[in-house]
Automatic annotation (TrEMBL):
<dbReference type="InterPro" id="IPR024185">
    <property type="entry name" value="FTHF_cligase-like_sf"/>
</dbReference>
<dbReference type="InterPro" id="IPR037171">
    <property type="entry name" value="NagB/RpiA_transferase-like"/>
</dbReference>
<protein>
    <submittedName>
        <fullName>L-lactate dehydrogenase complex protein LldG</fullName>
    </submittedName>
</protein>
<dbReference type="Pfam" id="PF02589">
    <property type="entry name" value="LUD_dom"/>
</dbReference>
<dbReference type="InterPro" id="IPR003741">
    <property type="entry name" value="LUD_dom"/>
</dbReference>
<feature type="domain" description="LUD">
    <location>
        <begin position="105"/>
        <end position="202"/>
    </location>
</feature>
């Protein structure tokens, strides 16, 4: 008898006659409450991201101002990103078709995307490779990510977001710029993603 079989046999003997115990799991489900814009903005700022509130007619101007302030001359724009939002930008929109290499993505000044859903409680933005979002590498390799979030996409909590998302899609959950800390709690940004995250909330 192997050591494994011996251990399992002892466990079975110890559990012989023990009644089954029903384990209740009261997981929190979707709340159906709308996400609070102010809370989402506050949580995103807590992550050291840049946040702007803008109305629909002002998105193009705000995108142009943000890219200009960053000095971004070449930005990746995934297929499906609303063309009117780029109308005022003085920057080259780089298409990811055919797919750009990691070196090409590292050479651009940033990426401009939409999102699938945003979570007020955690300040998280979720991308699912849908229209205007592109593949996962687009939001991980460039050093600057400008993301446009509509207020209708903001939900209250994580269960609400999960209820809206398709689990089979490639999901990227973004909570602020990429950052990590070593054992001495020294924060280092840009280790495994963009060092700068800028979010435009369309009210």
């Amino acid at each position: 008898m192997s050591s494994r079989d011996l251990i399992l046999a002892r466990v079975r003997r110890a559990l012989a006659g023990v009644p089954d115990v029903e384990i209740t799991r009261a997981y929190r489900g979707p709340s159906e409450r709308p996400g609070e814009i102010g809370l989402f903005e506050e949580r995103v700022r807590d992550y050291h991201a840049v946040v702007h509130l803008v109305d629909e007619p002002g998105v193009a101007e705000r995108v142009a101002l943000s890219l200009a302030a960053r000095g971004a001359r070449r930005v990746v724009v995934p297929a499906g990103f609303p063309a009117p939002w780029l109308a005022a930008a003085d920057a080259e929109a780089v298409a990811d078709d055919p797919p750009l290499s990691a070196a090409d993505l590292g050479a651009v000044d940033g990426v401009l995307t939409t999102c699938a859903v945003a979570i007020a409680e955690t300040g998280t933005i979720v991308l699912d490779a849908g229209p205007g979002q592109g593949r996962r590498a687009l939001s991980l390799v460039p050093d600057y990510h400008l993301c446009v979030v509509r207020t209708a996409q903001i939900v209250a909590g994580v269960p609400d977001a999960v209820a809206r998302l398709a689990p089979a899609r490639p999901l990227t959950w973004i909570s602020g710029p990429s950052a990590t800390s070593d054992i001495e709690l020294n924060r280092v940004e840009g280790v495994h993603g963009p060092r700068t995250l800028e979010v435009l909330i369309v009210t």
